[in-house]
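[audit] Reproducing an earlier prediction to check determinism. Same input, same settings, fresh worker. If the tokens differ from the archived copy the diff job will pick it up downstream; this log only records the rerun itself.
[audit] input (166 residues):
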Amino acid sequence: MSLRTIAATAIVACLTLALAGCGKETDSGMKNTITSQEANQRLDAYIQQAKSALSISLELTGRDTDQPCDDPTDNGPKGRLIAGRSYKLTGTNKNSTASYFAKLKTWSTENNFHILTEKHNPEYLWIEKRDDGFRLALQSNDLGEIYLDGSSPCVWRNGTPEPQQE
């Protein structure tokens, strides 16, 4: 390996580490996030957009939840929250189940989401927004029911890291 190759590799490594450190962080290294309220508002907007892509006549019935993110998959600190939604779609036609999934799949690719998982019989489509990590899932069951769920990434209630309680 030439000296020039070693030097170029070292420069790239240093730049990568420096850029990885960019972003708003506190002294303890924990990153700021959007607030829980902003996460809920953004999730509601994505749910409404997805609902509109499926059909104007569908109604959402379900629940809103804020869940603790104490065992996050991102190995981040405890104390954060996840905005969550779970809705049953009413007014659906059991014979049109596949078309709802096709519509959401088309909408997702047109709106910067990518597919995490897709299954058939029963239908299941799990998508994630590329630029912010919000996730939506559309799933059916053998009864012909369809559910639309959504979740935010882990966020701090007020957008800034909170002191850890031991």
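[audit] rerun output stored. Observation attached for the diff report: The chain has three helices and six strands.
[audit] end
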